Amino acid sequence: MTRQQPPQHPHRTRIKICGITRIEDARAVVDSGADAIGLVFYPRSPRAVSIAQAAKIAAAVAPFVTLVGLFVNADAEHVREVLRQVPLGLLQFHGDETEQQCQQFDRPYIKAIRMRPEVNRDSLSSAYPSAQALLLDAYTPGTYGGTGEQFSWQRIPADLGRPVILAGGLHVGNVANAIARVHPYAVDVSGGVEADKGIKDAAQVHAFVKAAQQADRAVQTTTLP
Q1: Which of 18, 26, 150, 184 is most solvent-facing, going by the fewest CB within 10 Å?
Q2: Domain that holds residue 88
Q3: How far apart are alpha carbons 162 and 172 in whole angstroms?
């Protein structure tokens, strides 16, 4: 059975809401109890923000919520310029970056892996050993995430030995099932809680977080001795 093993101790699935473009949406994420906010610095994304926009959003975010900057094959100087102006706590590389490219900014990072047909246990286990976690997303040719597509969770190895962030097609209606089946370290949602691309629906954000929290409690109940 190719899935993550159930946790052997109480576990809280971390929650990241990605693609934030407005201050009011960032505040809704904080109020919902989510752990992280994703800011997209990929110009081709409909959820992209400028450095100035990101700095204003960051200034409105309360303490203890991680600001994550998402980059896709970005020029190193551009990443450094973002870091000079936006207090990012974590970098997310969602393109074809090498491990050396990801490591050069002296900042913790996560690496997105698009689940191509050839991706397997061995390639995942050896991929990016310096990454804080691997974010597993659906593979759609010619795109770098944000498609709302879901991949087969059965493809995730049970003994990967790395923190897994599950992305791709998550929404209020399936996040509980995702947590129950995959037992990820974290879940990452963008389009699944939107009123329109880049515009979050506060009610959906709160409902998503609540569904994830309820799923954690259900998993803990079923795994207690």
Answers
A1: 150
A2: 14-223
A3: 25
Domain assignment present for residue 215? The answer is yes
C-beta contacts of 74-81 below 8 A and 24+ residues apart? 74/41, 74/42, 76/101, 76/104, 76/105, 78/41, 79/41, 79/105, 80/105, 81/51
| Those residues with Cβ within 8 angstroms of residue 190's Cβ, 6 or more apart along the chain or in another chain | 17, 18, 19, 38, 47, 146
- In a domain, residue 184? The reply is yes
Residue 51 belongs to a domain: yes
Helix (H) or strand (E) holding 15: strand 14-17
pLDDT category, 1, cuts 50, 70, 90? very low
| CATH number reported for the structural domain that contains residue 114 in this entry | 3.20.20.70
Measured CA distances, 110 to 68, 106, 163 (Å): 9, 13, 10
* The pLDDT of residue 157 is above 70: yes
Q: How many CA atoms lie within 13 A of 83 on its CB side?
A: 18
Q: Are 205 and 34 in contact (CB under 8 A)?
A: yes
- Active-site annotation, residues: 18, 137
Note the pTM of the prediction, 2 decimals. 0.90
Q: Is residue 1 part of a domain?
A: no
